[in-house]
């Protein structure tokens, strides 16, 4: 009987040790992975990454969240079914659409990249010139970098740009007028375009909502497109400012081609075929990465 009890105790201890080792090993194996989030918490973060980067990949998200590839595929399928993402090979992108995302969200997206781009652009803007700045959070970032420039005459259809440049006493500011878009302070329509046609600018700094893979600049608002085209026609030289998130977005209305741009300021290299086209078009590409 004592022998049986001893054997039983040893057996129980052995089983407990195996069980403890299995639990510990499983726990130890998970220590290098990010704690798993529920789907409710993953979806908003996936959308935030997509807005920031322009694209998400299944493998990248699986590593980020510490979950399986199949879990991420289900997440992306759910987001695609609800219209918030569009599935592509290996991941997902923001959906093609006819409306832009909200102004406050655009302003906060890739803010460090926009600042780096704006500084590089503003460094190439000379004093003593006439300059046009159009609608967009990227051109507003450029305006912030022009506060110490001298003797500028800035014409704009962006109320936010005008408000920023009020702080520079050496800057004359002319606002075009036009139909006010309350959502972002943009002025669009025939009145804005007509005012622009009365000028010949030394330089225009413009943004866009999306950049197609063939080099076309795209936007969502057809009224804004007409104004942007007038800006390009009335400018001796044109700079484009746009961060990498515009590379994977789509919008329905065409503004112009990169062939019509003198210098494109961005934060990441272009696809090799588009970079080659820019070289053929003599469009300079200036890459400024955020610090």
Task: Describe, in plain words, how this protein is organized in 3D.
- Residues 39-94 form the HTH deoR-type domain.
- Keywords: Repressor, Transcription, Transcription regulation.
- This is Transcriptional regulator, DeoR family.
- InterPro entries: Carb_Metab_HTH_regulators (IPR050313), DeoR-like_C (IPR014036), DeoR_HTH (IPR001034), NagB/RpiA_transferase-like (IPR037171), WH-like_DNA-bd_sf (IPR036388), WH_DNA-bd_sf (IPR036390).
- The chain contains eleven helices and 15 strands.
- With 291 residues, the chain is an alpha/beta fold.
- It folds into three domains: 1-32; 39-93, Winged helix-like DNA-binding domain superfamily/Winged helix DNA-binding domain (Arc Repressor Mutant, subunit A, Orthogonal Bundle), CATH 1.10.10; 111-287, 3-Layer(aba) Sandwich (Rossmann fold).
- A seven-stranded parallel beta sheet has the order 6-5-4-9-12-14-15, with helices on both faces.
- Strand 4, helix 7 (137-144) and strand 5 form a beta-alpha-beta unit.
- Helix 6 (111-122) crosses helix 7 (137-144), helix 7 packs parallel to helix 8 and helix 9 (190-196) runs parallel beside helix 10.
- The longest helix is centred in the first third of the chain and has 29 residues, at 2-30.
- It starts with a helix and ends with a strand.
